[in-house]
Write a structure and sequence with these properties.
Layout (H helix, E strand, L loop, with lengths): L2 E13 L5 E8 L2 E3 L3 E5 L6 H8 L7 E6 L2 E2 L5 H10 L1 E5 L10 H11 L6 H11 L15 H13 L5 E5 L7 H18 L2 E6 L10 E6 L2 E7 L7
Parallel strand pairs: 4-9, 4-10, 7-8, 8-9
Antiparallel strand pairs: 1-2, 1-3, 1-5, 5-6, 10-11
Amino acid sequence: MEYMIRTKDIIKSFPMGNGETFYALKGLNVDIPKGKLSVLKGRSGSGKTTLLNVLSGLDEATKGTVWFDGQDISEFGNKELERMRRYEIGFVFQSVALIPIMSAYENVDFSLRLSDYPENRDSRIREVLQYVGMTERMNHMVHQMSGGEQQRVAIARAVAHKPKVIFADEPTGALDTSAGISVMKLFRTLVEREHTTIVMTTHDTGLMGLADYVFELEDGEIIGTKRNERTESF
């Protein structure tokens, strides 16, 4: 099996006011398969968002090693990390952070401009908006979309520049059950069509069956790993 991300003995600690140290991640080891949808599962405070931030280079581990597509990012400087996040990674968050004065089309186009996308932007924008079912609403402004529609545009924006990995932090947290399942099915479509590696956090147990791999965290440690056998296609 090929892995997109591997870690060894990741520790993330924070000094506390009383002189003690809080350990958010405790010597954690996890391997993220390439071209699969992996879920980091856990209750609030389990360390899943901290781990996501370390894996994506948004935050630096206190100790340990992270390999991103074979490269040790713990040795990267700020410019190398910025380049990795800009060109090789897409981000989706619970708060979609779309630019409100832009349409769906313009939000995706802005992302492509930032990543210096070398191919035809218009065709790519239309392609990814079709993936997420937003073709007919591509000219709508953010305030004219529902929460689920905004998240779909955020996903289109994240995947448009063909990143190696999409990191999604609680992307269904602000959505109702139906919209949340729709987003997960959309992630599955992107994995199958684009062969993108997706790593997401959630505490919603109802969504676990749509993932390829589920890594369960508790108190900064991996306490279980589950592989789902997938036969269905979306």
